[in-house]
Amino acid sequence: MSSFHFLHCLPFLILVVVFQFTFHLSHAQLPGTWDTLVENAGIASMHTAVTRFDTVVLLDRTNIGPSRKLLRKGHCRSDRNDAVLKHDCYAHSVLLDLATNQIRPLMILTDTWCSSGQFLPDGTLLQTGGDLDGFKKIRKFEPCEPDGLCDWVELDDVALTDGRWYATNQILPDGSVIIVGGRAANTVEYFPPRKHGAVSIPFLAESEDNQMDNLYPYVHLLPNGHLFIFANDRAVMYDYDSNKILMKYPPLDGGPRNYPSAGSSTMLALEGDYSTAVIVVCGGAQYGAFIARSTDTPAHGSCGRIVATLPDPVWEMEDMPFGRIMGDMVMLPTGDVLIINGAQAGTQGFDLASDPCLFPVLYRPDQPVGLRFMTLNPGTVARMYHSTANLLPDGRVLLAGSNPHVFYRFKAEFPTELRIEVFSPEYLSPDRANLRPVIEGIPETLRYAEAFDVVVSVPLHVVGIVEVNLGSAPFATHSFSQGQRLVKLAVTPTAVAGDGRYKISCTAPPSGRVAPPGYYMAFAVNQGVPSVARWIHLVS
To answer: pTM, whole model, 2 decimals?
Structure first.
């Protein structure tokens, strides 16, 4: 190249270098960090739940052929109806020990494809439905210490009344579980079973369209004791005791929002007098993308937010920085919401999406419209169809799964994903470590409306209120965390207790309507920085 041509091109070359430097620098400056926890979990987790023993249950489906984790010797599954493996010695569920990152195989017998789940008040994971021989099956996993041998138990003395495939579970104030909807199941039923079995709820049939779009309905228990049920583009307030629709909410603009067009949904933190519940629904596929099997139709980027407990509520609309299908909304200990995983085009289903959305987004509910979303540091692993996200007791978020294929495929544009990652929000950054509280004392068991004290230590002197927030352990699957809940307790200003410790006087939730009975992660939050949680048992 002549000196003339070099000098002529120099401004362009400088521009390219500056752009590349700025691009990489901007990524480095975005909040949050990523780490790989496990290189090979053995399975791609379609359903994930965190237990009170700081272990994580990961669950795929059984008829998927060979996984990458063998069952214990002598524990093979035999199923003459399995089209892939009639004698199956591979694990399709595993248990992760968060203390050691070790994986232990678990044995599931019946098909759990697109099933549902919820923790019971005693900490047992209830798991319901699926496909084929799992259609009406009820299973339990009773967690144990990490060195124990707890495993799945398939119940033979009780079954679902209606088969449940793509259903949603929600624990109720009395500790029972309602199981809502499913493919061709426009009913609800309960565990333990009630005498009337499955009860018809016409709303589910009314919200179905010619590509379904009413599957895995978003179900939230409101603090008035009723259910907010969202399916397709509409929602109702449902009184399950009388089987009556108490309110029909206005339709949400932007097209369908549930499977197979699912975005995600969460109920924001309950606080104050607990009379107000705010629901947020974000993202989704454009109507028709599923029918057309379109992989490049842009996903929605809109979010609707509604105060579900108002007499005449309306949707407040806002836009995410990215369109997103199959995203997960994870309630953080602070009350902010992490939106993570998913794709920017296509729809749910096998090999039906493209353009993975690698950028997480932080939704800050207390900010005004237009300022609520913050783009975070991007990951590098595509987490698309059949991926999950769960809050961990240490405040990180665990990412697992992604298998957009009928079977495991590792040589594909978006391969089956066996790695488990964690995302650390900005509140865990080193420059905030001196704000991070440590819970030194908290009761292991709480009763409703009980007054109690929490003792924390903090490296820096505490200024202002230290929150004590209770987070549930939901069952995450298909872009929705079933049973997800954060309750901010009434607390007094911190009192100096000596030796760098502080006492916080708290009041437990008033009833099961606000916080159903069960195990919760109790976080102390100081200036937006959460402690490592302590598990507490909330009982009536």
So the answer is: 0.94
